[in-house]
Design a protein that fits this description.
The protein contains 14 helices and 7 strands. By secondary structure, the chain is of the alpha/beta class. About 40% of the residues lie in helices and about 10% in strands. Strands 1-2-3-4-5-6-7 form a 7-stranded parallel β-sheet. The protein has helices at about 10-25, 30-45, 70-80, 85-95, 95-105, 110-120, 150-160, 180-195, 220-225, 245-255, 280-290, 305-315, 335-345, 355-365, and strands at about 135, 165, 205-210, 230-235, 260, 290-295, 320. α1 runs antiparallel to α2 (about 30-45), α6 packs across α13 and α10 runs parallel beside α11 (about 280-290). The structure holds zinc ion.
Length: about 375
């Protein structure tokens, strides 16, 4: 399995960013904690390997947000593959086990450089940017996003999409500005208006990100779900619980009207493990009901990742590769999802975002016939 993973053994950006996070977590002052975290993020966001920034004289070309202390760590890793500086700081902090725990919460995340490499690696095959017709999870100003529906349509057209599903949070999640049913009606009128304007060129789909409650039910009634064209159901609670939640997730993917299991685990980079479940059983249930497993491309989520996605491929699942964008700049996060799918050998035909609109809508409608 390791062989086809682009640069898995040599993603120094990942290794360096992780070491900078280790260093951040053992700092005493908030300011230096933030400094190292910012440096780690800068490395994760580089679109090329950090080795490319090395000058012939052994110094490092300027990278924004990287200060002299972080530069020392980077040069040490480039020279030796590891960092004694960080190892020493962690050992002296007396918090080695805590550092190790948060390291485990950074496993199977891709750096931007690795995303770029996976997208351009012809040996991987699978879904690519050219066959990607539209994004099926995003948030607008109607809930917790900063992009208007107009912005989404313009940015979708700009990216060459045929459609985008607007999936604001449901009313069951007030903490994320969930839309009331009244607001949803007003939003749908605006979507109709925009679709008339872009007819034949681009379509906004009426979607929702419904919340999966602790008992596996979804926080909207069947009648409410019927008003929507794309229903993403996602967990937003009990994401740090070590208890098995297989039954919760199977109930969610077996709910009539649900199309996509959104960010299935709800994990967060370096801080949250997400839902614990017997995932092959969840994937088998999703396969039976025709629910697509989402790869959420938000860099802090990357949920599910290429490693777990292989189990969903084996189970015969469909996939949705989405950005979970809250602003138009974040629509590019779908590229992270595409990279995970390629690394997991997801066949392009199993990616619902690669389907023509008519096929997508037919599949979504089928969710009422299970
Ligand atoms: Zn969500």
């Amino acid at each position: 399995m390791a062989k086809s993973k682009v640069g898995e053994d040599v993603d120094l950006n990942d290794r360096i960013a992780s070491l900078l996070r280790d260093l951040a977590s053992v700092q005493k002052s908030t300011q230096s904690r933030w400094g190292y975290k910012r440096a780690a993020a800068a490395i994760r966001n580089l679109d090329q390997p950090v080795q490319n920034f090395l000058e012939p004289d052994g110094s490092l070309r300027k990278i924004p947000n990287i200060g002299p202390a972080s530069t020392r760590v980077i040069l040490e890793v480039l020279r030796t593959g590891a960092s004694d500086l960080v190892a020493k700081a962690v050992a002296e902090s007396g918090r080695a086990s805590e550092v190790e725990r948060s390291r485990q919460l950074r496993a199977h995340f891709l750096t931007r450089a690795r995303v770029v490499a996976a997208l351009s690696d012809a040996n991987l095959g699978g879904p690519g940017l050219e066959g990607y017709r539209g994004d099926l999870q995003m948030h607008s100003t109607w809930s917790d996003g900063s992009q208007t529906l107009d912005d989404i349509a313009a940015a979708g057209i700009e990216r060459g999409y045929e459609y985008c599903a607007v999936t604001d949070h449901s009313y069951g999640l007030p903490i994320a500005g969930g839309v009331s049913m009244d607001d949803l009606g007003r939003q749908h009128a605006e979507i109709d208006r925009l679709n008339r304007r872009h007819r034949g060129r681009f379509t906004l789909l009426k979607g929702i990100e419904a919340n999966i409650r602790a008992d596996g039910t979804v926080d909207m009634s069947a009648d409410e779900l019927r008003l929507l064209q794309i229903v993403v159901a996602a967990p937003h609670s009990a994401l740090r619980s070590p208890h098995d939640q297989t039954a919760r997730m199977i109930a969610a993917v077996s709910t009539p009207g649900v199309n996509i299991l959104g960010h299935p685990r709800g994990r967060m980079y370096g801080s949250r493990p997400g839902v614990a479940a017997d995932w092959p059983r969840v994937f088998a249930a999703a396969r039976r009901s025709g629910v697509a497993i989402e790869i959420d491309g938000d860099p802090a989520r990357q949920d599910i990742d290429y490693d777990l996605a292989e189990a969903a491929v084996a189970a015969g699942c469909l996939f949705a590769l989405d950005s979970d964008a809250h602003s138009t700049g974040e629509l590019a996060y779908s590229e992270t999802a595409l990279a995970h799918a390629r690394l997991a050998h997801v066949p392009a035909d199993r990616v619902v975002n690669c389907w023509p609109l008519a096929r997508l809508l037919e599949w979504a409608e089928d969710s009422w016939r299970r």
